[in-house]
Amino acid sequence: MRHVVRELVRGAVDSLVLLGRYARFVARLLAETPRALLRFGLVVEQVYKSGALSLVIIMLSGLFVGMVLGLQGFDLLERFGSEESLGTAAALGLVKELGPVVAALLFAGRAGTALASELGLMRATDQLSAMEMMAVDPVRRVVMPRFLGGVVAMPLLAGIFSMIGIFGAQLVGVQMMGVDSGQFWSQMQGAVERGDVMEGVVKSCVFGVACSAIAVYEGYHSVPTAEGVGRATTRTVVISSVMVLLLDYMLTAVMM
Amino acid sequence: MRATRAVELGTGMFVLLGFAALFFLVTQITNREVGFGDAGYRVTASFDQVGGLKPGAPVSMSGVTVGRVESIGYDFALYQAVVVLRIDGRYDRIPADSDASIFTAGLLGGQYVGIAPGGSETFLKDGDRIEFTQSAIVLENLISKFLFSKAGEQGTAAGTEGTN
Prior knowledge:
The complex is a heterodimer. Helices cover 88% and strands 0% of the residues of chain A.
């Protein structure tokens, strides 16, 4: 019994320690941001890796999520005889929730794991130590561009996801199910406000910071073994996904 | 590894697509405000009851949106709600004796201000006040009136029965 209590206390203290390490790491990343923005070429390269290379999966997922929304929304709204509201339902759902959240989950799976394993392998093959030997700060040279690349890419990916999703919903709702095209767009424009779009943008910015910070933290602090790199990648996906959903609830509650 | 030209090109296209998507979301799926900022002119109207009218609700004439409700306040001099309407500058020929009413769009829709034109030769301009107004219909009041009148009828019916 005493053993169990001791383990629980230790677990709680450990997670607080982890939280503290994360906070210190993120504070350092944010403090380095102005300087890192000056080395723009490095950031551009990472925007390409995190953002442009994630485009295919984001666009494909966005299209299918939108199409499913169109199908399910039509089925639901038809029961109330208000299938013209399909545009509103799909646009609000995508812009406020599904766009930022699903894009962030995909981002964690596609770009976050790549960042974590890359940094983890750099750690395991002593590349980071080599940089320190040459008086090059690895956080500045390697971690910061990757972090900022993710932060820049995330809102753009979420925006693309939402846009493609709305077209997917339009494809199913208007082309297949026969909702009136004018009603679809005009009801959407009447109901969606600029604040709704901004809510989605704010969310995706927060998710971008969270996912990128988690990925680079886990990679940078990974155990320098093959197993450690694997664990870092897994932890990146798990922690990112949970954090995205948790932050989503908190942000939604705040911005309601 | 240097950022090569192809990488920069790919990044540029990605960023362009991303901002195009955000621009699309902001401009194409949201309602475009009539007369953004200081454009147009403001008129006020006082109502006994504004019901569920909200700032941003449309002001319409014959179903055409000519402006938006800018703000709703309470005037303690009149003991009435004061609604400030911002009318788009294009619609500058609304007769000064027009009347404003608060309607509900559909059974469950939001409320809006409808303006019915009067016959005056002078037109509303910035700062004017619409004199003739009709308040929002509050469903509860209607129901209670109906119930009370029903109860009254039954009361008199019972009374006449008693005398017989």
